[in-house]
Automatic annotation (TrEMBL):
Keywords assigned: Hydrolase
Organism: Kocuria rosea
UniProt lineage: Bacteria, Bacillati, Actinomycetota, Actinomycetes, Micrococcales
Any Gene Ontology CC annotation: cytosol
NCBIfam families assigned to the protein according to its UniProt record, in alphabetical order: Cof-subfamily (TIGR00099)
UniProt xrefs under InterPro entries: Cof (IPR000150), HAD-like_sf (IPR036412), HAD_sf (IPR023214)
Name this polypeptide is given: Cof-type HAD-IIB family hydrolase
GO molecular function: magnesium ion binding; phosphatase activity
Pfam families, per database record: Hydrolase_3
Length: 281
């Protein structure tokens, strides 16, 4: 039997495709790898409460969520690092002062204003209607979770913020003005104009959570595969022994990975697992 490997899989654009669909080969890859004794973890920017049921139903050994603020291994919580409440308040003040739409994630749910929820729903509907061709590159979220009221969020439980700006330089400005304390990366939401991004605490990334999981399991990073398609996957590529970009990822992101597999619509996860011996034909 080959040595036990551990794989970390992004969700949107890696497992989940247009219309909330999951390729049968992806399900077969995850279940086949686990049956062969390998470990497979989710590694997503989503909160745990926003992981679609059809993704969870595949079966995983654990999950990294909120871009690394939380991580579980089996029934054990390995990482639980919500933002300090004063940091959350700084973000709220920043967004409101600049009229930038945003929502906040706890590990359980997404919290947004009615205006933001309406914009997100309209954005996704418009994008799905305009990008339905079978070979269309896929990097954007496939569904927008219904949110709870932003006014009800517990500032002590916020793990991550997501923002949507009208200007193309909204992300760059946030990086410049918040980079002293926060990790700011471009998001993958399909806005018709402007830009969007994700914000966590400095040092809190998918990569940091993967390191914590590997340490807890006693698994060397050389045995880890990280597969993703978005900018919050960069640190995952850096930490894992093999970083694999999906074929539908941006060219600039592919350049930061060790290798590229096929797209989410072309058996990308299965082909990566097959190449590295986690499954067999």
């Amino acid at each position: 039997m080959s040595p036990t490997r551990i794989a970390f899989l992004d969700v949107d654009g890696t497992i989940l495709d247009h219309g909330k669909a999951i390729a049968p080969s992806t399900i077969a890859a995850v279940r086949g790898a686990r049956a062969a004794g390998h470990l497979v973890y989710l590694c997503t920017g989503r909160s745990a409460g926003a992981i679609p049921p059809q993704v969870s139903a595949i079966g995983f050994d654990g999950a990294i969520t909120n871009g690394g603020a939380y991580a579980t291994s089996g029934a054990e919580t390995v990482v639980a690092e919500p933002m300090p409440s004063d940091a959350v308040q700084r973000l709220i003040d920043y967004f409101e002062h600049r009229d930038v739409l945003f929502f906040l994630q706890t590990d359980a749910a997404v919290h947004a204003s009615p205006q933001v929820q309406e914009k997100l729903d309209a954005m996704l509907h418009r994008w799905q209607s305009a990008h339905g061709e079978p070979d269309e590159p896929q990097t954007a979220p496939q569904e927008v979770p219904q949110s709870r009221d932003l006014a009800d969020v517990d500032l002590d439980r916020v793990a991550k913020a997501v923002f949507l700006g009208d200007s193309v330089d909204t992300v760059a400005r946030a990086q410049d003005e918040l980079g002293d304390r926060f990790h700011v990366v471009p998001g993958s939401m399909p806005l018709p104009a402007g830009s969007n991004g994700e914000i966590g605490m400095l040092g809190t990334t998918k990569g940091s959570a993967i390191e914590a999981v590997l340490d807890r399991l006693g698994v060397d990073r050389s045995m880890a595969l990280g597969i993703g398609d978005s900018w919050n996957d960069v640190e995952m590529f850096e930490v894992c022994g093999t970083g694999i970009a999906m074929g539908n990822a941006a060219p600039e992101l592919k350049a930061l990975a060790d290798e590229t597999t096929t797209s989410v619509r072309d058996d990308g996860v299965w082909n990566a697992f097959l190449r590295h011996g986690l499954v067999a034909v």
